[in-house]
């Protein structure tokens, strides 16, 4: 099992979402503790951090994975049109 760490800015982004969307994103974040690379996830290219992306409807969760200490660090949560800026 991986430990989930959520950046304060990602928590703030999550609080801005509707309750229904936030709950489905929370379920996906919880599932990342069991499998940090689920089917459909992608590693983002052309960035300094080793960011991964997983989809939840029109929303995206951007995170890093540290396999040595088994941590999934949630960096950003947001709508797909805004998240990559």
CATH architecture: 2-Layer Sandwich
Biggest beta-sheet profile: 5 strands, mixed
Average pLDDT confidence is 94
CATH superfamily, called what?
RelE-like
Write down the Rg. Answer: 12 Å
CATH topology name, in short, is: YaeB-like fold
Kindly state the number of beta strands.
5
The tally of structural domains comes to 1
What share of residues is helical? 25-40%
SSE class = alpha+beta
CATH class annotation: Alpha Beta
Gap between N and C termini: 31 Å
Q: How many separate helices?
A: 2
> Are there runs of 5+ residues with pLDDT below 50, and where?
none
Principal-axis shape: globular
- Could you state the oligomeric state of the chains shown? single chain
**Largest sheet, order of strands side by side?**
1-5-4-3-2
What is the strand content?
25-35%
* N-to-C order of helices and strands: EHHEEEE
Notes on the protein architecture:
The chain is of the alpha+beta class and 85 residues long. It has a single domain, classed as YaeB-like fold (2-Layer Sandwich). It has two helices and five strands; from the N terminus they run βααββββ. It has helices at residues 8-15, 19-32; strands at residues 3-6, 42-43, 51-56, 59-66, 71-79. The chain has a five-stranded mixed sheet with strand order 1-5-4-3-2. It is globular.
Please outline what is shown here.
The protein is an alpha+beta fold and 85 residues long.
